[in-house]
Specification:
The two termini are 39 Å apart. The protein contains four helices and 23 strands. By secondary structure, the chain is mainly β. 24% of the residues are buried. The strands form four sheets. It has a twelve-stranded antiparallel beta sheet with strand order 3-4-7-8-10-11-14-15-18-19-20-21. Strands 13-12-16-17-22-23 form a six-stranded mixed beta sheet. Helix 1 runs parallel beside helix 3 and helix 2 packs across helix 3.
Amino acid sequence: MGATNPFSILNGKPLKPTDRRDQWGGTVGGPIVKDRLFFFFSYDQQKRNFPGLALPSSPTFLTPFTAAERSTMTTRSVTTAQQDAGLTFLSSLTGVVPRKGDQDIFFPKIDWKLNQSNTVSLSYNRMRWHSPAGVQTQPVVSRGIASFGNDDVKVDSFTGKLSSLLSSRMSNEVRFQYGRDFEFQNSQPPAPGEATTGVGGRSPQVAIFGGGITFGKPNFLERRSYPDERRTQIADTVSIAMGKHLFKFGGDFNHVADTLNNLFQEGGAYNYNNRVDFISDMAVPSGKRYSSFAQGFGPTAFSFSTNDINLFAQDDWRILPRLALNLGVRWEYERLPKPQIANPLLAGTSTFPDDKNNFGPRIGVAWDPFGNGKTSVRGGYGIYYGRLINSTISNAITNTGMASGQVQFTLTGAAGPLYPNVLDTAPAAGGSKWPQSA
């Protein structure tokens, strides 16, 4: 029942590709041993069929050549047949792209009452996502039909909890988690007519501006693991009731090991200002009509780990029957990995921060102004700290400007290769070089 996308125009006619979503699942639970052992199981699956439409960003990009365009290509020794073949090739990169998404989740859980004082809960969450051509999710994409990219995710998480009543006034809860988040994306086989001179038999990325289209292997692929992250965490909380006070204190330790396997622009990337320049290089590859060529070099994979330690103490104090005060403090420490490729010209690449003074006080108040339990006034104040996310740490490790790290070269003119070739090794000179986030 959705409306037709106003940009979804193919061969001069509006087109509304199918977008069908199916979702089903169910839950079941109950006792295994009466009043002692219980189970719960949930399953959910989603399937989506949502073809995309590969089109240039301008509807005039594939219109017949003007006289001026043909004259320019003729002066470059491009024959009329080659001109028409080039436009036919660009047109062949457009159209409807089969694209699907399939996700399934299942979640088993067990609650076991060991005795009157101890209860154990165990659960496992498993998710799988597979989406051919699903990196690009918008209805209309200005990429070639074979340049959307495939998307996959695998998530596994096991959690356990032991709740213990130590006395009439004291309880303890210990929690454990082990999880893996494995995400990866890969390129599709080249479309008919695309060059296969890039890494792994793929085409280098070609982006044609001026209302054009981008095709070839996307410059952000391959993402062999992005990330492959494994987490081990243990936490403990003790609660003590004393008169008008409920004291809580505890902490947690969180170890995360990450592997990111991705090199930006590893397959090479050409940029053209217009279709005439591209077709000229395609037909007569001695011209180097592109505006720039970029390629990344260096190791694709880096591994590192972080350790987070957090401690807290809290007092929920009921000062009056209608007034409660919450007081607390939290300390957080993130231990970063050691640098792997230090640059002697930049001190920040040889040492990472080691901040151990992250104390965060917290205060909150809750007041029942009328004493009837229907109205409450609340307020609070606190200081909070955000950790350095692991993707930032990854960039600090890999992009230090050293030849042994990841670097991208941008070349023009004589320094660049002839289309559709890519470089086997990093250039010794020429062009510009800089670290670049993947």
